[in-house]
Amino acid sequence: MSKSSRKFRVPDELANVYDLANTLDLRRFTYHGVAHAQSDELADANKLQAWLRDRNLASPGARLPRTALRSALQFRQALRDYLRCDGAERQTNRKVVDALNRAMRPFALTVEATRSGMALKSAEQSAAGLSRLVAELYNAETRNQLARLKMCASDECRRVFFDRSKPASRRWCQSTLCGNRNKTRAYRERQRQDG
Questions:
Q1: All structural domains of the chain
Q2: Alpha-carbon dihedral 164, 165, 166, 170, rounded to 10 degrees
Q3: Per residue in 27-57, pLDDT tens?
Q4: Looking at the whole model, is its pTM more than 0.85?
Q5: CB 48 within 8 A of CB 42
Q6: C-alpha–C-alpha distance, residues 34 and 43, integer Å
């Protein structure tokens, strides 16, 4: 769990999926006169390994397969595309659903009986950390939490956020930043058209 997932009170069982989606930071706006620097926390295999270790998704000595970085980046992009869709579109957009299914295929899961019930576990030890992310995604869907994980509607942001609002109808990651910027822009456009 990252500082960001704690700060925005993302449920623990969804925090790794939230963090993965936000490892790609495409924000492109200026805030208090400072341009936001875009970044990718998974820029190479070593960074992916460290990211997994920091979240206890990989043991310190574990080695990732050579294809792990490519698979992780494909999964992240497919996940971000899926979260960009609104709730109803997530099930009906065949292109997005098919891409997510293809991206999850390398991460085989199996069901295992535990003391507390049934649990999804990685079927392949070498990709266990990435498989656990797929299991978390599935578990979030079964608990009806995945619908609350959304992508900010601002084209300048595209951060993933957890919608804690009662009706689950938020569009912006932060209404004071992205929401305010977009509402101000829309207001100015209406003033220009009216004037």
A1: 3-194 (1.10.3300)
A2: -120
A3: 887 777 788 789 999 999 999 999 999 998 8
A4: yes
A5: yes
A6: 24
